[in-house]
Every structure is written in C-alpha cells, then in structure tokens.
Amino acid sequence: QVQLVESGGGLVQPGGSLRLSCAASGFTLDYYAIGWFRQAPGKEREGVSCISSSDGSTYYADSVKGRFTISRDNAKNTVYLQMNSLKPEDTAVYYCATDVVNRVVAGIPAYWGQGTLVTVSS
User: Residue 112 in contact with residue 5, Cβ under 8 Å?
Assistant: First the structure.
C-alpha cells in the first residue's frame, strides 16, 4: 500500500526557512518521481517542484526557483523540500505526491499525502 506522510510545516516569519519531509512507504523511490504541490486558500493547487527517479532531475516553479531545493534520500525513502527566503505568498498546504514522472509533471499523480500547512507571517 502506497503511503506518503508529510511533516515539517509550521509558522515562520518572512525571510525564514523550513524543511518539509515526505516519508514514503509501500514502494521505493528508486522507481517513481516525487512532486511537491501546494494549495493556498481560495486558489487552485499548483506544482512547486519535482524530482525524477531515474537521474534525479529536478523541476521548480518560477515562483520558488532559487529559494526552494528538492532532494531525495533513497536510503530513507524520503524526499525533502528545503524552503528558504519564505514569503507570505508561500503560505499554503503543501502536499507530496508520487507516480511516474510524466504524471507528476502533468500534475496528475495517483498517490498523495495528507498535506502539511506552511504559514509565513510576521
């Protein structure tokens, strides 16, 4: 049974940092891509970043490029999202999701975590 569990969300001041974790079970990261998505109140869900299984290629939305870094620890079956220089507009529920890379990039992965709330506010 595929399961994804996010952690690491919380309240942070503008300019601060958080690291989100996505712990996977029921499958190995070696064969699947992982994506981070977010949904702010009243807004549509958007893709933030993803990392492929084959060569570790990464993708970032323009809004987070240069501030967020995605990484993968296959030994721990965990993917991380390091978020620096956080802005109030980064406030959202962050979800990790997995599937083959094409479906993750297209925003339609089959398996989703429950989400973790990130609030950026002074």
Answer: no
Per-chain mean pLDDT for the chain: 94
d(CA 52, CA 50): 7
What is d(CA 70, CA 61) in angstroms, rounded to the nearest whole number? 12
Is 94 within 8 Å of 86 (Cβ atoms)? no
Separation of alpha carbons 33 and 51, rounded Å: 6
As a whole-number percent, the residues of the chain with pLDDT over 70 amount to 100
What are the distances in angstroms from CA 114 to CA 14, 15, 58, 72?
25, 26, 23, 19
